[in-house]
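Q: Here's a chain of 231 amino acids. Please give me its 3D structure as tokens.
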Amino acid sequence: MIHHLLSPLLDLLYPRLCLACSSDLPPPNEILCVRCQYELPETRQWLQVENAFTEVFWGRVPISNGAALYFFSKTGRVQHLVHQLKYENKPEIGCQLGQRLGWELRHQTHFQIVEVVVPVPLHPNKYKTRGYNQAEVFGRGVATAMELPLWPTALVRTKNSMSQTRKTRQDRALNVQQVFALGEPERLVGKHVLLVDDVLTTGATLETCARLITSLPGTKVSLATLAMADD
């Protein structure tokens, strides 16, 4: 009761600013202001089977579909969101934007064949430090909107590899070799998996995980991320 009474006063003294622009007030229960909801650079890739996202993986690993919610660039608002999700204890960003993308995917015929959502795993040491896996909270939002199960232990991270942020394309590929393993291969056999991560840059991490999944009999994979680098 006291919290309910003080809430309007606290909102006045410490307003909940938009997590993208840090300027405007978002609507109740939203993380983005109305302006950012309309201005952030949506990719709209879910409308096409072949798009800039899927082109990244041509000749590398067979995927059925792929899409990111937003494009991101250095110092942009989307990068600011991703940084807060990963390093500033804002898991609500992943969950809410995952629901936003999941709602779009569930209305596209080519994504309706997906049966389960699997996040790129985080090493236990990083999980302990961060308190959550940003890909998992994003995947939970996607799975909720698509009304699909989320299997966060289907893949495991066996090595605590260094951050990919400042690495070249070649270094990123080397950095993720032998880092991941199948955690529950028997559950994935014959399934169409939606593999999710926070961002797509070179695609090294998603490629490695997708290879593991598609090595199983009758298993297919589609990909989805919160953001994709705008080259």
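Q: Can you summarize the key feature?
A: The first strand starts at residue 66 and ends at 72.
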